[in-house]
């Protein structure tokens, strides 16, 4: 947001409305800070260390990319259930391409994102050409179909031996000697950073980005304004597929192998992060920054509970409660908004 | 009919719809409807629910394609396949539900789909500063008072949102603006402002087609009024040559002896 934009926003807002806007934008960051403080107090020897904090960055990378793609979809009041399966298929084909020996590594590197885009386009075409009534249906279909294809091409077996060049984005480390002898930041964190800045800029400044937001606000308004809504939806689902493909590349890098069961349930984690981050399921509302905060909340929760040796079953329980809580806060805020 | 064209013998129509047919399956919504619109006039289109007003306007705005008939604009026959085609020749529509994106600020709604900006790397990037400035100037020109062009449309009153919808329709030198029941959803104190706005458009030389149920509106702003009945042309007249009761009679499908049917409240 530019300076003049922010200034004129202030002029029109009453203090109450301004407080509301502030909470809407940064409330979830307050949760992130609060969680960090609590975890630092509970586990002062482990949690606030460079190693643990960069570990969290490594752990959230995949969810961060899937959530970013889903955020763009949810902006248009859509849903993409297939991102976990897209990621699995892309990882598998990427691993096969790289280990086959027929392709140089730069080609293998591209396989993941390209497969992602292709799968996303299939989702988009199902929605716009077949005119299936809701993206839930189409992407539920591809959730199963792509998982099936993944198992078919791999015969259900993992494929290991991915080359170091292809693994770089997912497993590379940039040493930070001034923070300690073994301290380093994962390359994947920079991938995330670039993607988040890129999407944020694209949604705010590019005409297509604004059209995506407009389709989320009122598709009819977009249509009568001469916007090709089908084209926008095709782009949106392709982007979601692209980020799933990029997540596949990071995953392949991190594990060094393609697993046919990778990413089962990953779509739900990504949806949860987007919702915790304050995006509306009804479209047109939310911020990229909020999505990142949502991803952090989930990452911190997992990390904290792991450090405290709490069972993974409790993690699921808490994440479920946080999703409901985050949306309930949104309901309350909206109520306060209409009362004013 | 003869007396109507007599007033305009020297001027050729800006827009003509000739013999428009529109069928939806077995239903004929429009049956050989003709419409003429002259430069700088406000034409009222009246009719009961289902008379075909909205269908006719959707044909004119490119949302529907006519089953038969011709559209002639400035003497040239045109075909419209989408709202974009209509906008390209200068025909704009203000929809009854306004068709605004509530989550976007005023200025973005005004230029939605036609954002000023630059192309780089194959993408069009919006110049938001310019867009904001253009929106402010345009709203000033129309005497529309809105606190800030950065306000989201969902925060506006019904009248303000209506004004934004009209501003969008006129942002690019529209020749024809179609308004579908622009005052139906407004508070009474806002109705006058919107009607004044329509008059201001006419004074700028824009032709306006006004669909309305409210006789007060029709007789306040229109130069001419035409009535549809059961999807056909029923009657039309210069506004000075008719009166409310007669027009209300047309809406109900009667000509002549209208006194007995007079209901100003309609």
Describe this structure as you would to a colleague.
- The complex is a heterodimer of chains A (340) and B (266).
- Chain A has 340 residues and is an all-alpha fold.
- Chain A is built from 14 helices and four strands.
- Chain A starts with a helix and ends with a helix.
- In chain A, the strands form two sheets. A two-stranded antiparallel sheet of chain A has the order 1-4. In chain A, strands 2-3 form a two-stranded antiparallel ribbon.
- Chain B has 266 residues and is an alpha/beta fold.
- In chain B, 31% of the residues lie in helices and 26% in strands.
- In chain B, the strands form three sheets. Chain B has a six-stranded mixed sheet, with helices on both faces.
- In chain B, helix 6 (158-169) runs parallel beside helix 7.
- Chain B is globular and about 60 Å long.
- Chain A binds chain B through residues 2, 4-5, 8-9, 11-12, 205-208, 210-211, 213-214, 216-218, 220-227, 284-285, and chain B through 61, 63, 82-84, 87, 93, 95, 97-104, 108-109, 112-115, 117, 123-126, 128-129, 147-148, 150-151, 168.
Core attributes:
heterodimer; A: 340 residues; mainly alpha; two-stranded antiparallel sheet; 14 helices; 4 strands; globular; B: 266 residues; six-stranded mixed β-sheet; 9 helices
Chain-wise SSE layout:
The complex is a heterodimer of chains A (340) and B (266).
Chain A: H1 3-12, H2 15-42, H3 50-75, H4 83-100, H5 105-128, H6 135-154, E1 159-160, H7 164-171, E2 173-175, E3 184-186, H8 187-205, H9 207-217, H10 219-224, H11 229-255, E4 257-258, H12 266-276, H13 288-307, H14 312-339
Antiparallel strand pairs in A: 1-4, 2-3
Helix pairs in contact in A: 2-13, 3-8, 3-11, 3-12, 3-13, 4-5, 4-6, 4-11, 5-6, 5-11, 7-11, 8-9, 9-11, 12-13, 12-14, 13-14
Chain B: H1 2-6, E1 15-24, E2 27-37, E3 42-46, H2 53-60, E4 68-73, E5 76-78, H3 83-89, E6 91-94, H4 106-110, E7 117-120, E8 123-126, H5 128-141, H6 158-169, E9 176-180, H7 188-203, E10 207-211, H8 215-221, E11 224-229, E12 232-238, H9 244-251
């Amino acid at each position: 947001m530019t300076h003049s934009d922010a200034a004129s926003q202030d002029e029109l807002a009453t203090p109450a409305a301004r407080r509301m806007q502030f909470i809407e934008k940064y409330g979830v960051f307050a949760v992130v800070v609060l969680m960090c403080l609590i975890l630092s107090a509970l586990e002062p020897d482990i949690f606030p260390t460079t190693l643990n904090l960069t570990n969290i960055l490594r752990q959230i990378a995949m969810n961060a990319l899937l959530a970013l793609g889903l955020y763009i979809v949810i902006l248009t009041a859509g849903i993409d259930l297939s991102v976990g399966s897209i990621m699995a298929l892309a990882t598998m084909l990427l691993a096969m391409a790289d280990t086959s020996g027929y392709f140089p590594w730069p080609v293998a590197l591209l396989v993941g994102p390209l497969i992602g885009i292709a799968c996303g386009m299939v989702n988009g075409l199902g929605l716009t050409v077949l005119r299936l009534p809701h993206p839930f249906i189409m992407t539920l279909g591809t959730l199963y179909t792509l998982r099936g294809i993944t198992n078919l091409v791999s015969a259900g077996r993992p494929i290991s031996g991915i080359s170091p060049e292809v693994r770089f984005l997912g497993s590379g480390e940039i040493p930070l000697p001034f923070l300690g002898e073994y301290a380093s930041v994962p390359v994947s964190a920079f991938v995330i950073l670039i993607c988040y800045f890129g999407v944020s800029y694209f949604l705010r400044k590019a005409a297509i980005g604004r059209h995506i937001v407009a389709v989320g606000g009122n598709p009819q308004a977009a249509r009568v304004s001469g916007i090709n809504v089908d084209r926008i939806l095709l782009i949106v689902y392709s982007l979601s597929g692209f980020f799933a493909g990029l997540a596949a590349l990071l995953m392949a890098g991190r594990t060094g192998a393609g697993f046919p069961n990778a990413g089962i349930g990953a779509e739900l984690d990504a949806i949860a992060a987007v919702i915790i981050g304050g995006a509306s399921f009804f479209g047109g509302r939310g911020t990229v920054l909020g999505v990142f905060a949502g991803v952090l909340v989930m990452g911190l929760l997992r990390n904290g509970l792991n450090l405290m040796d709490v069972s993974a079953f409790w993690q699921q329980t808490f994440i479920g409660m946080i999703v409901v809580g985050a949306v309930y806060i949104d309901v309350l805020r909206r109520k306060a908004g209409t009362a004013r | 009919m003869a007396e109507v064209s007599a007033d305009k013998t020297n001027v050729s129509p800006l827009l003509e719809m000739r013999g428009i047919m529109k069928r939806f399956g077995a239903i004929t919504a429009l049956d050989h409807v003709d419409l003429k619109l002259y430069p700088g006039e406000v034409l009222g289109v009246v009719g009961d629910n289902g008379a075909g007003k909205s269908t006719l306007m959707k044909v004119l705005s490119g949302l529907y394609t006519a089953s038969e008939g011709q559209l002639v604009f400035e003497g040239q026959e045109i075909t419209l396949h989408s709202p974009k085609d209509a906008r390209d020749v200068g025909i704009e529509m203000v929809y009854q539900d306004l068709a605004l994106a509530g989550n976007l600020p005023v200025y973005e709604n005004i230029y939605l789909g036609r954002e000023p900006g630059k192309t780089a790397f194959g993408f069009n990037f919006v110049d938001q500063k310019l867009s904001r400035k253009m929106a402010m100037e345009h709203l000033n020109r129309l005497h529309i008072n809105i606190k800030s062009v950065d306000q989201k449309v969902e925060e506006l009153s019904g009248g303000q949102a209506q004004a934004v919808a009209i501003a969008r329709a006129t942002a690019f030198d529209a020749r024809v603006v179609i308004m579908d029941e622009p005052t139906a959803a407004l508070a009474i104190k806002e109705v006058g402002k919107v009607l004044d706005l329509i008059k201001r458009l006419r004074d700028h030389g824009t032709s306006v087609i006004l669909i309305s149920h409210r006789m007060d509106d029709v007789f306040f702003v229109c130069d001419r009024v035409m009535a549809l009945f059961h999807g056909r042309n029923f009657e039309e007249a210069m506004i000075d040559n008719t009166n409310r009761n007669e027009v209300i009679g047309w809406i109900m499908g009667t000509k002549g002896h209208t006194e007995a049917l007079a209901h100003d409240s309609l």
